[in-house]
Specification:
The protein is α+β, with helices and mostly antiparallel strands. The chain contains five helices and six strands, in the order βαβααββββαα. It has helices at residues 17-24, 34-37, 42-49, 87-92, 94-103, and strands at 6-9, 32-33, 54-57, 68-69, 72-73, 76-77. It has a two-stranded parallel ribbon. Strands 2-4 form a two-stranded antiparallel sheet. The radius of gyration is 15 Å and the shape is elongated.
């Protein structure tokens, strides 16, 4: 009863060993198929279904276009490993997270 709002940050898209190798080789066009690296997130889906008390914050648009997800965005390497983002890219998302929190 004391909890008024719950916010769930949707899981980020992962990456692949192929995309990491592509970036290391400094090739252009390194990307993953969105369908291959963006997996369902049951926690975010549950939060989205419980509005208005619970909400999901979905930042996928900052990682992916309509069909591809990118290992480098705005000159920053996105991932720390196959399914976690690195600190530099995480900090770049701060304003978007704050905006989502204020909107809710």
């Amino acid at each position: 009863p004391s909890v008024r709002r719950v916010r769930v940050l949707r899981d980020i898209p992962g990456t692949t060993v192929r995309a990491i190798a592509c970036v290391r080789a400094r090739r252009r066009g390194c990307a993953n198929r969105r369908s291959a690296v963006l997996v369902p997130d049951p926690g975010a889906a549950a939060a989205a279904a419980r509005t208005p008390r619970a909400r999901a914050i979905d930042l996928v648009r900052h990682f992916c276009g309509p069909t591809r997800c990118y290992p480098v965005v705005g000159g920053a390497y996105v991932h720390k490993d196959l399914d976690h983002m690195n600190a530099v890219f995480a900090m770049s998302l701060g304003p978007f997270v704050l905006r989502a929190l204020r909107a809710g």
